[in-house]
Design brief:
The chain is 54% helix and 0% strand. With 131 residues, the protein is mainly α. The protein has a domain of 57 residues.
Length: 131
Amino acid sequence: MVLIGLPEANPAQSVLLELSSLPLSFSLAVGIVMLQRRTVRPIGRRTRVVLLAGLGLVTLGLLLMMWAYLPGPRELVHFGQLLVWIGLLAALLVVIRRLPRQVHSSYHVVEADDAGAGVGDPADQEQRPSL
């Protein structure tokens, strides 16, 4: 709505603008679940506590947003969204920490001398390739 220039003229448009981050939050939660399936490290005590705290923050944020639209003050919607994002960030950091480490290999190219003196062919000359 903002991109095409529509103002917040009616209540439906302002509700859509307030809840515009929920699809992105949902997609991040799905991404966290997909990454969780690739983890190899076991869940420890601290990991479980952080994941449960993140889940609690997400739940509390969603409940605050629902309560803000039913009987509560509308200003709680933004605080609820903040709690949802903090909970998702905590879960994302824990899941990234539990992913398998990638082996880092560094490769470098050894340049041959211009004259070619003193540098032999690195391949073994006695071996013949099999066809």
